[in-house]
Amino acid sequence: MEFAELIRTGQAQAELLRGPEEPPLRGTLCITGHHLLLSPGPQATPDLWLLLLRNVDSIEKRVAGDSGTITLRCKDLRVLQLDIEGVEATLDIARSIEALSSLESVITSFPFFYRPKGLRLGDAWHFHPPECYYKRVARETNAWRLSEANEDFSLCPSYPRAVIVPRAVDDSALARSARFRQGGRFPVLSYYHAPSGTVLLRAGQPLTGPQKRRCSEDEDLLRAVLAGARPGARGFIVDARSPQAAKQARMTGGGTEAKAAYPGWKRLHRPLETGRPLQESFVRLVEACGDLEQSMDRWLNRLESCRWLSHVKETLSTACLAAQSMEQEGACVLVHGAEGTDSTLLITSLAQLILDPLSRTMAGFQELIEREWVQAGHPFQLRCAHSAFSHARPKHEAPTFLLFLDCVWQLGRQFPLSLEFGEGMLLTLFDHAYASPFGTFLCNNEKERCLCEVRTRTHSLWSGLSQPKEQRKLRNPLYVPNPLAIWPSAEPQSLRLWQGLFLRGTRPPEPSEVAWEKVWQIVTDQEKTEGSQPTDSASEAGP
């Protein structure tokens, strides 16, 4: 279908209301296949206002007299209002936006047409391949190897082509272990913790079923993990489900690792909500944040009842458990839930941020996102199909990645000097996960990206963020490298609502942006001052 068939009207005169304390913008409103544009009149600023239609989560229209109003609730949590001249023009524009914003085809989405100046196709897609992380692991230990058994995605469609596995386990054993795990997600290395010589792994649940099936190759794989660690190492299996949920899963073909079959491994249940309960929590929080007329008591009650901060607390607590098991108890850790593509990735990625100073740098954090979310098979296309405003509620939607970003924000708030990136980076990642001109978060796994030729036909987000003009907005000017682990407090009094995100549609952004720029200016001036001062040795040197 051609985009032109879905555009019912070419243009109309409109006034745009963008948010609190922002002046209205009046001009000519136009619709293209991917964007909504407003061109101000000749007397106004020459800047063109642009909205990616993929960002529209819901649309409401009202008509009165000879004009109409369209309210756009966006996936980035902003709310926009368009006052349009003419009833027919209002209805035609609303129908056009509804049709174009709901297109599901990946290859007709904007990233396949986006060609920014200064970027070349293929740039930055090679920044974070699995081989890069493996080289770092290989410098520390010889117990692991890079396997290409999944080269054609036949073992696991949601894993990348190459994965890191124990050297003692051959590819045929990996294939049999894959058949024993949900979605083919056999245990693979997520992180090697050099100080303790322990590892963090992720997988899907074992398919033991009601018959309590076993797989000797899967058991051998986890035995090899302990053998490759320090002498006498033990392991913990962190199951992100409750015992009841795991037992119920066994009745439908899933299950858990039997204690007798995996000697040296102890199972710990740390249930984390995923799927619909997490999505509903997100929706209720956004609704509460958008109500400007409520009393203090009602606000506090709604904040508590939505349980969003409870999800943050439980996630951080579980990530700390995994990190402590490695750092303080010298144990290896395997993490899985059911499919291993949601709560599993939450735990493994946050545990690395706690333990690994490199993951807290700008480049290291981007690699972490690419390796532990994009390449690890988080289904972005399904989970981020809608945000908090859509009336459609498919069962696959869930703000799992947003929960991760919120936990990272809590880390940054508690350790303001230890992260090289700032809130701007986290907000940018949230925005691009739901609607982006770049191809990084397209599709649900590497197999789908390969079929759609995403890496050769779209630009990488990391390439866009590497531009000098973006760096000032993303970096933390107060960053000081910290070689130690950072242990966040998950106590209720230590956690805060992420106002920069959840209140972005109801409060003006200027004060925080001005403050951020002021901090940058202070740091820059200080660096110039220090650079212009002579060193002690130079000032004391004789003629």
Verbal overview:
By secondary structure, this protein is α+β, with helices and mostly antiparallel strands. Helix content is about 40%, strand content about 15%. The chain has helices at about 85-100, 130-140, 170-180, 215-230, 245-250, 275-290, 295-305, 310-325, 345-355, 360-375, 380-385, 400-415, 425-435, 445-450, 455, 460-465, 470-475, 500, 510-530, 535-540; strands spanning about 10-15, 25-30, 35-40, 50, 55-65, 65-75, 80-85, 145, 165, 190-195, 200, 235-240, 265-270, 330-335. The strands form three sheets. Strands 4-3-2-1-7-6-5 form a seven-stranded antiparallel beta sheet, covered by helices on one side. The protein is globular and about 75 Å long. The termini are far apart.
Please give the structural blueprint.
Blueprint lengths: L10 E7 L7 E7 L3 E6 L8 E4 L3 E9 L2 E8 L4 E7 L1 H15 L28 H9 L5 E4 L15 E4 L4 H9 L8 E6 L4 E5 L13 H13 L6 E5 L3 H9 L13 E5 L5 H16 L5 H11 L1 H20 L4 E5 L6 H13 L6 H13 L5 H4 L16 H15 L8 H12 L11 H6 L2 H4 L3 H5 L2 H7 L24 H4 L7 H23 L3 H5 L3
Parallel strand pairs: 11-14, 12-13, 12-14
Antiparallel strand pairs: 1-2, 1-7, 2-3, 3-4, 5-6, 6-7, 8-9, 10-11
Helix pairs in contact: 3-4, 6-7, 8-9, 8-12, 9-10, 9-12, 12-13
Q: State the low-pLDDT regions, or none.
A: 537-543
| Largest sheet features | 7 strands, antiparallel
User: Going across the major beta sheet, what is the strand order?
Assistant: 4-3-2-1-7-6-5
Percent strand equals 15-25%
Q: Tell me the helix content.
A: 25-40%
Radius of gyration: 25 Å
Helices and strands: which structural class? Answer: alpha+beta
Number of helices: 20
Cα separation of the termini: 80 Å
What is the global morphology? Answer: globular
Question: How many beta-strand elements?
Answer: 14
What do the pLDDT scores average to?
90
